[in-house]
Design a protein that fits this description.
Number of strands: 8
Distance between the termini: 83 Å
Largest sheet: 8 strands, parallel, barrel
Helix content: 40-55%
Radius of gyration: 25 Å
């Protein structure tokens, strides 16, 4: 099966195509990105889905958690990423408070992500009471991605940012939650921070794709956060594989810039604009005449 990105694609991948990829034995590639340049590069690399995560709170907005992230912030970030994506399906993370209050609010906010931000689908965390919200959004014709295991919006209830499903009872709950999410209408489910054998059983229990992050290799696909995989996160989680050191590259570039400005080597002639000699002389004559006039007055 070829892993080369498409040479010339003018439309986004569809949900049936996502499902067909998994049915053929292919693996889905998902990346979390928050702006047009990042989404464009990920799209050109051939990822299947771009998740505009509320993890932006900690990766780009300087927050300590995802809970404070607002709908307006997510709309702006999703709109930017959508502009950069041509082929990849764009999934918007619904932030805390945007779907917990009522089904009406959940549907209205999901609609905003599609109409105002250009997303193709939305993602909600958890099961339980979230199931009715997922059902309502699905019934409104909006594709929904589920998310179980470590769910950052409810990390306090889970005892912090740690792996879930490490006891037999907890693992069984994850399987039951995944089945319930599929029944509620989810087209896929993110499985975060859980033992690989548990994720494998969850994947077997549902007929929709599972997207792992810290959940082993048996999932239908994998997702990583853009800043983690390119080396922009100082202390990434255990499950992150860093594929580049962009922090080092950027630091080196900025250090060189600081040096060049301070020692006067930037900008040089190749980075400046000129003007015809005749126009420059005329300009200088005008300034000289103006100074002479002012001194006389």
């Amino acid at each position: 099966m070829s892993h080369e990105p498409p040479a010339d694609v003018t439309r986004r991948i569809t949900l049936p195509e996502i499902a067909a990829t998994v049915q053929r034995g292919g693996r889905l590639v998902v990346v979390t990105a928050y702006d047009a340049p990042s989404a464009r590069i990920a799209d050109q690399a051939g990822v299947d889905m771009i998740l505009v995560g509320d993890s932006a709170g900690t990766t780009v907005l300087g927050l300590d958690a995802t809970v404070p992230v607002t709908m307006e912030e997510m709309i702006v970030l999703t709109r930017a990423a959508s502009r950069g994506a041509r082929r990849a399906l764009v999934v918007a993370d619904m932030p805390f408070g945007s779907y917990q209050i009522s089904e009406t609010d959940a549907v209205a906010n999901a609609v905003r992500f599609l109409k105002d931000a250009g997303a193709d689908a939305v993602k909600l965390e958890g099961a339980g009471r979230t199931l009715t919200r997922i059902g309502a959004i699905h019934d409104a014709g909006i594709p929904v991605m589920g998310h179980i295991g470590l769910t950052p919006q409810s990390a306090t209830l889970l005892g912090g940012y740690k792996a879930q499903g490490r006891t037999a009872a907890a693992a069984r709950r994850l399987v039951d939650e995944a089945v319930a999410l599929e029944r509620a209408g989810c087209f896929s489910i993110v499985l975060e921070a859980m033992p690989a054998p548990v994720a494998a059983r969850v994947t077997e229990a549902v007929s929709i794709p599972t997207i792992g992050i810290g959940a082993g290799a048996s999932c239908s696909g994998q997702v990583l956060v853009w800043h983690d995989l390119v080396g922009l996160t100082p202390d990434p989680a255990r499950f992150v594989k860093t594929y580049a050191d962009l922090a080092g590259v950027l630091r080196g570039a900025l250090t060189a810039y600081v040096r060049d400005v301070r020692d006067g080597t930037f900008p040089d002639a190749s980075h400046t604009y000129g003007m015809p000699d005749a126009e420059r002389l005329r300009f200088e004559d005008q300034l000289t005449s103006r100074r002479t006039t002012r001194s006389r007055s």
